[in-house]
Structure formats: structure tokens, C-alpha cells
Design goal:
seven-stranded antiparallel β-sheet; 8 helices; disordered N terminus
Length: about 575
């Protein structure tokens, strides 16, 4: 309507200006993210044109594999526009050519940590507006319901999985970054240098808070930074000291939980020299698994501590106390710390429970034989076969085998061993004794097997001569230990004037291990296991003599084994 002058009436102009203001936010959200801080979605429009208005008949919220879903039910396919608004964060979906066909239009309070509430209103005569209130701005995918469910109309709004919490924790001495989220999180992990850091990207995920930093008081990790790197990727960055090893652990019993596990820390090593040996105490966090073994070729006792890393610097400590030469602590492999204990000999060790899971404690045995000179004399040899058993077994091969086994045990205990022979050769009695006297030996032990014209005598006996103090005690200790270990008949230690005993100027004895003339004991002497037991018995007696106290019979130890002497000499039928 115009006035006579043709000008627009003032109240009509005012109404037109108000109409423009009422639709401006909607237009701004679709066309330009400007003053209302509105940003269109990647696919800001979707459509499947139909005739007649679409009726909104239902709203439902669900959690599917950790993803929040809003399902909007309609009577037919629909066309829609979307926009994301801030302050507060919300997703707006305008459904064109639509009317609300539901009796109740109250807001749906969801209670999810991402989706808080769903609101619906008849925005205009032909537009239904759905507003999804969010705790933070979150990416989502909108699909037609018929594409996902078949036979149903409407829309399905699927949000990213949620990252709900991130922390750095120390549990039972084991440290790690704990990521708590929803659904099956699939992290992408990489390590970077200059500066050192570990980057964990979690795709298709939304961080339910603003970017933040976790300060960390830890030897390996300085801090943890967390942010929404892109609309679909949560990024976690651990700033580290160096390049620590770690494991990425997905806990199957706790879906949505990931642990970046740094394991345990090795903090230091204490060394204490004692009368009976030396104690090694490795300071650790927690109670890590470990493997302890002796490496014979390296003369080294090693403690490999699993799932662990060094808090201290790699180090070497010289000890040189007659038990340990030096101790080396290294990051042997990623995730494995090795404590390498270099030894002049190896008599044995024990792990000690001191009641503190934060310590791995070993007592390493001091050897009373360290640097002692022991002469071991395998009886007979070469042209002198010694006694011969009913089956043809010759004494000279049996004594050599037992003597070599005994020498191996003595060397492991730190003794300097001199053998009167190491193969099948003849050595005179004076030369045997001369080896002990000229080398200022501490002990002389001659190894034999017994024989008698009668087939029935059995057992072990040890001879000594009283010309040298302590020979009787040496013989008695060896006899007792030999009988305990071999479980053979005890014929006692006895005095007898034999050349090698009479002429030796050191404590000396001659051991008759068993009767080769007895068919049953000849069969025992054919057994490598029995010969090893005999060697261990003699060895335990020597240890007891040198330590001035009774020592337990040595345990069978793979590092103390030697190759069997070939018993198939001329006249032998032994396999």
C-alpha cells in the first residue's frame, strides 16, 4: 500500500527490517560462518526429494561401538541442511518441507558425556529444526536411515568415538600413559627426534575437553600434551628424555582403554662384600620378571630384568674382591636391563627374599678354592690299563673321565688345576708326585677304581698317609661326600702307605671310587651320570676341606659337564 506521494509507510519498512533480522542467523549459518560463529558441516546439505511434507515421527539416542548416535525417524526421505554453532556447542539440522508429527516435543536429556540433549521445534511452517547440544564441538557423519537400516526413513547422526580421560600413572612400580575412551580405539604411534617425543594419534575420535598438558615427574617422560589435532584426530604427545622403549597395550577386558606402557625402572645397584661372598642388590620399581643365568663362555652371571629401563646411566663398577671382578649395568635391549656380573670363578649363587619387592638381591658364593693349586691324578694310563672289569672295562679310561670332570668343577670354583695326564698316556709315579711338590700345590688327589679277585666286594674307600698333617681330614671329608653323592657302599677312609701318598709333601689322598671287579659297579662306572656324581662327591669333599666346614654336595650344573672320555679302548666293549 502506498500513500499518495508513493512512499512506503514507516511501519511496513519496520516490519520488513524485522523479518530480515529473524532469518539472518539461519542464512549466515548456511552461507557464511561470520558473526554467529557458525561453520557449515562438510556435507552441509542432503536430500532425497519427495512430494508432500515429511513428518518427524521419532527421536532416539544410542551408543554403537563407542559412538554416540542420534536417530531421527521420518515418514519419508528428507532434505536437510546442517550447521555447527558455538557458545554453547551444538549441531543444528534443519529438515526442509517437514512438520512435527509427534505429540510430545519436550527436549530429550541424554546424559552422554558428548551428547547432552536433543531439542526439536517447528522453526517455520516448512522447516523442522533439530538441535543436538554437545559438551564440545564434535565431528559427525549424517546418513539417510534407509542406507543403514533398510526399510526405514529418516537420518542417523553418528559422532566420533570419545576420548574421555588421559593420565600418566604409576601402578605397582610400572609407569604409563592411560587413555580412556569409548569403543575400539585404534592408535597410530610414531617416535620423533629433535626434540625426542612419542606421538599417538587416535583417528575418528573427539577429545571431551580443551587441549591440556600433564606435567610428569618421571625419569623417562617430561610431560604429556593432549589436543584435538584435527576434527577427526586426537593427538597425544609424550615429551621424553631420550628414546625410551614402550609397549602399546589394548586391554581386551576394558574396551576403549589403551596403555602406553613404559614398564619398570632400574634405579641403581648396591654391592656389599661379606665373609661368605658378595651381595648384589638391584634397586627397581615394582617387581619385574627377571632371568638369572651363568654364561660359562663369558664367565659372567647375568640378571636380565624384563619390561624395564634404566633410570641411571649405563655404568661399569670395578669390584675385584675375590668374588666379583666388575659389574656392568646396561640397557641390553629395548625393554630389557642387564646387570652383568663378571666373575673370576663361579661356585654358585642364590636369590634372597629381603621382603622388599623393590630389590632384586643375589648372594654370590665366595670360593675357598680361589687361586688354590690342586693336582688331580688320573690313575694308570697308556701301557698301564689298571684293573679290568668282567665286561672288559679298563680302569685307566674311567679314572681319566672322572678326573676331567673333577678338574672342570675345581676350575669353576677358581682353583688352578694341574692334571698329571689329560689323555691316555703312561706317567710314572715319581712324575706324578713331582708335579705336586714342584708347584707348591695345596692338595693332591689321585683317582682310582678298586679291584679284587672275588667278584663280591663293593663300595668306595679313600686312602691317606699320616706323613703330612691334614691328609687324614682330607680323605675323611672326600670319603663322606663321595658316599653321600654316589649312594654307594661306605668302606671308610683308611691309612695306607702308597708311593704317591708317602712322597707327597702336601695334603694328599687316593680315592677308590668303586669296584670295577664287581659286575654291578662296573655297570655303574660305564654310566656318565654316575661318573659325574663321583666327581661331584670328590669336589664337595675338597670344598669342605678348604673352607674348614662341611659344604653341600655340588648340584648337577650344565656348565660343569665335560665331554665323556671314550671308554672304548682296546679290550673294551662299552658303547
Amino acid at each position: 500500500m502506498k500513500t499518495r506521494s508513493g512512499a512506503t509507510p514507516p511501519f511496513i519498512a519496520f516490519l520488513a527490517f524485522g523479518l530480515i533480522l529473524s532469518v539472518f542467523p539461519y542464512l549466515a549459518g548456511i552461507v557464511h560462518a561470520g558473526g554467529l560463529d557458525a561453520t557449515p558441516m562438510g556435507d552441509s546439505e542432503g536430500s532425497s526429494r519427495v512430494d508432500g511434507p515429511v513428518r518427524i515421527v521419532g527421536i532416539k539416542f544410542a551408543q554403537v561401538d563407542g559412538r554416540a548416535q542420534v536417530i531421527i525417524g521420518t515418514t519419508s526421505p528428507c532434505k536437510y541442511k546442517t550447521m555447527v554453532l558455538k557458545q554453547p556447542d551444538r549441531l543444528v539440522i534443519d529438515i526442509d518441507n517437514a512438520v512435527i508429527g509427534m505429540a510430545r516435543r519436550d527436549p530429550v536429556n541424554v546424559g552422554d558425556r558428548l551428547v547432552r540433549r536433543i531439542r526439536m521445534a517447528q522453526f517455520s511452517a516448512s522447516v523442522v529444526r533439530m538441535v543436538i547440544d554437545l559438551s564440545v564441538s564434535a565431528a559427525c557423519v549424517i546418513k539417510a536411515r534407509e542406507e543403514m537400516e533398510g526399510g526405514s526413513n529418516g537420518l542417523v547422526v553418528t559422532f566420533n568415538r570419545e576420548i574421555q580421560d588421559i593420565s600418566f600413572q604409576n601402578t605397582d612400580g610400572r609407569s604409563g600413559i592411560i587413555i580412556t575412551g569409548t569403543g575400539d580405539l585404534v592408535p597410530r604411534v610414531m617416535t620423533l627426534k629433535s626434540p625426542d617425543r612419542i606421538v599417538i594419534d587416535i583417528p575418528e575420535a573427539t577429545l571431551l575437553r580443551e587441549a591440556f598438558t600433564i606435567p610428569v615427574d618421571h625419569a623417562l617422560v617430561k610431560q604429556v600434551r593432549v589436543s584435538q589435532n584435527t576434527k577427526d584426530v586426537v593427538r597425544i604427545v609424550a615429551d621424553t628424555n631420550g628414546s625410551p622403549a614402550f609397549n602399546v597395550v589394548k586391554q581386551e577386558d576394558k574396551p576403549g582403554r589403551i596403555v602406553i606402557d613404559f614398564g619398570y625402572l632400574v634405579k641403581g645397584v648396591d654391592i656389599a662384600t661379606q665373609g661368605s661372598g658378595t651381595r648384589i642388590a638391584v634397586k627397581v620399581t615394582g617387581n619385574p620378571a627377571r632371568t638369572i643365568r651363568y654364561l660359562d663362555d663369558l664367565k659372567m652371571l647375568v640378571i636380565d630384568i624384563e619390561d624395564s629401563q634404566l633410570e641411571m646411566c649405563e655404568t661399569t663398577r670395578v669390584v675385584d674382591d675375590g668374588v666379583i671382578d666388575q659389574v656392568e649395568v646396561t640397557q641390553f635391549q629395548p625393554g630389557t636391563v642387564r646387570v652383568a656380573i663378571r666373575l673370576p670363578y663361579y661356585l654358585g649363587h642364590s636369590e634372597v627374599d629381603v621382603g622388599n619387592p623393590g630389590e632384586i638381591v643375589l648372594d654370590i658364593v665366595r670360593s675357598p678354592l680361589f687361586k688354590k693349586v690342586v693336582v688331580v691324578d688320573p690313575g694308570h694310563g697308556g701301557s698301564d690299563p689298571g684293573a679290568i672289569g668282567p665286561s672288559g672295562l679298563q680302569e685307566k679310561f674311567v679314572t681319566l673321565d672322572i678326573a676331567l670332570r673333577l678338574a672342570r668343577l675345581l676350575e669353576l670354583a677358581g682353583a688352578k688345576v694341574l692334571l698329571t695326564r689329560t689323555d691316555d698316556r703312561f706317567v710314572s709315579l715319581p712324575d706324578r708326585v713331582k708335579l705336586a711338590n714342584e708347584n707348591n700345590a695345596d692338595l693332591f688327589v689321585s683317582v682310582h677304581v678298586n679291584s679284587f679277585t672275588d667278584l663280591y666286594p663293593s663300595g668306595a674307600e679313600t686312602f691317606y698317609f699320616d706323613n703330612v698333617p691334614d691328609s687324614r681330614r682330607l680323605a675323611a671329608l672326600i670319603q663322606d661326600a663321595l658316599v653321600r653323592e654316589s649312594e654307594i657302599n661306605n668302606r671308610k677312609a683308611k691309612s695306607r702307605e702308597l708311593y704317591v701318598l708317602r712322597e707327597a709333601r702336601v695334603p694328599a689322598c687316593l680315592v677308590e671310587v668303586a669296584f670295577i671287579s664287581n659286575f654291578g659297579e662296573e655297570m655303574l662306572l660305564m654310566s656318565p651320570g654316575f661318573r659325574q656324581k663321583a666327581a661331584q662327591g670328590i669336589y664337595a669333599g675338597i670344598l669342605s676341606f678348604s673352607s674348614e666346614k662341611t659344604m653341600p654336595v655340588a648340584q648337577a650344573n650344565p656348565v660343569a659337564q665335560v665331554n665323556d672320555v671314550d671308554l672304548r679302548g682296546k679290550g673294551n666293549i662299552i658303547e
